[in-house]
């Protein structure tokens, strides 16, 4: 098990979601994402060999924040943390997952959608609340509407976020954005387009820093 970085930062900024169906994530991918300025790398548990990838990437880039996503049970949380995950991301809010993470002092971005779900996740100890799948339910306007009654909750809109709407999410008060297929697509990985991934990551992280 790799040693976590000394300080685990809040799960904010551009979170790159690596969700591949057909192949494990290669090392050139993490090199490209980091070269593009990405600080949080989320390897989803649905990606083949996800835990082995996290272990390898932590050794390759000891300073990087490499998390495991799509964690749904306490047992999955334990396994992810044993593999060296520096943060967890969940699609739903499961109190047992938060308990495991708290025990290990690992931050969790909890998935939630409605105001009740979001506040529940926050009060249960989520580091950040992943508002998913946001683009399907109202996009930046929905996020802005949530900020009025829940101003203290760091929100991480996820699902359909891309270069075309990132600035609108930043302007609506997002603490960060989760970006999957618009950055790391199966086709881009299959074609080994590492320069494309790096340049796209750079434009997304620069856009975020310029507007958040
Ligand atoms: O867990 C979240 C989804 O994988 C987000 O994916 P997307 O950015 O491709 O919509």
From TrEMBL:
One of the Pfam families matching this protein, by short name: Aldolase
Coiled-coil ranges per UniProt: none
Pathways involved: Carbohydrate acid metabolism
Highest taxon of the lineage: Bacteria
SUPFAM superfamilies (alphabetical): Aldolase (SSF51569)
InterPro entries: Aldlse_KDPG_KHG (IPR000887), Aldolase_TIM (IPR013785)
Listed GO MF terms: lyase activity
UniProt KW keywords: Carbohydrate metabolism, Lyase
Assembly description: Homotrimer.
Family to which the UniProt record says this protein belongs: Belongs to the KHG/KDPG aldolase family.
Name of the protein this chain belongs to: Bifunctional 4-hydroxy-2-oxoglutarate aldolase/2-dehydro-3-deoxy-phosphogluconate aldolase
